[in-house]
Design brief:
It is a single chain. This protein has one domain. It is built from 5 helices and no strands. It is mainly α. The radius of gyration is 19 Å and the shape is elongated. This is Transcription elongation factor.
Length: about 110
């Protein structure tokens, strides 16, 4: 979860017309600091940078998706999508009745 201060600094950079890489730099810096403090178990600086860029994308920074060949297809596809909604904005979903027989029978019993 990115810090609120990082999001605020990135928005300020966007308002002043700075490049997306500059906006994302705040998230990357926070991630590298977290690694230095031992909050993450990443094995290399590249992983910390990748996590920071991913957080920046989720916060709405227009960072391009990873280059071809550097990531799995699924990771590239999800990184290319527009910024995801925050967790609080999502509409609650009904559990599907077809997912498991146990849940289905419990739902039917509750409805009866």
């Amino acid at each position: 979860m990115p810090k609120a201060s990082s999001i605020a600094r990135a928005k300020a950079d966007k308002r002043s017309g700075k490049a997306p890489s500059t906006q994302a730099g705040h998230f990357v810096r926070d991630e590298i600091e977290a690694v230095r403090h031992g909050k993450h178990g990443v094995r290399s600086a590249k992983q910390a940078i990748a996590i920071g860029l991913s957080e920046a994308r989720r916060a709405g920074v227009d960072v391009p998706p990873p280059k071809t060949g550097s990531k799995a297809v699924a990771a590239k596809k999800s990184a290319g999508k527009p910024a995801a909604k925050s967790i609080g904005d999502k509409a609650p979903r009904r559990p599907s009745l077809e997912s498991t027989a146990k849940r289905r029978s419990a739902a039917i019993k509750a409805l009866k």
